[in-house]
Amino acid sequence: MKLEWEDLRLLEAIERTGKVAAAARELGLSLSTLYRRVGLLESSVGHVCLLRGAQAAR
Questions:
Q1: Burial class (CB in 10 A: 0-12, 13-18, 19+), 58
Q2: Which residues are within 8 A (CB) of 30 and not within 5 positions of it... i.e. 6 or more apart?
Q3: d(CA 37, CA 14)
Q4: pTM of structure
Q5: In the predicted model, is pLDDT for residue 58 greater than 90?
Q6: For residue range 3-17, what is the model confidence (pLDDT) as tens digits?
Q7: Which of 3, 20, 26, 45 has the most CB atoms lying inside 10 A of its own CB?
Q8: How would you class 30 by CB atoms within 10 Å of its CB: exposed for 0-12, middle for 13-18, buried for 19 or more?
Q9: How would you class 17 by CB atoms within 10 Å of its CB: exposed for 0-12, middle for 13-18, buried for 19 or more?
Q10: How far apart are CA 23 and CA 28, in angstroms?
Q11: What angle do CA 43, 48, 51 make, to 5 degrees?
């Protein structure tokens, strides 16, 4: 998978809002779509980009 600017925009929205649901809402995506795309991004770069937690994503 080729890294796209749109993928980085997902991470930026999650970081700025502090919540995956808020980022998904802002970007007009479903939660499952956002998580799938972040998972694909993580696989392509071979690194965990999103620390998932009960309260917020980091």
A1: exposed
A2: 24
A3: 13
A4: 0.77
A5: no
A6: 788 888 999 999 999
A7: 20
A8: exposed
A9: middle
A10: 8
A11: 135
Q: How many CB atoms lie within 10 A of CB 49?
A: 16
- The amino acid sitting at 14 is I
CA–CA distance, 55 with 4 (Å, rounded to integer): 28
Chain segment 30-57, per-residue pLDDT in tens:
999 999 999 998 898 898 887 766 555 5
Tokens, residue 8: 């980085």
Q: What is the DSSP string of 14-33?
A: HHHHS-HHHHHHHHT--HHH
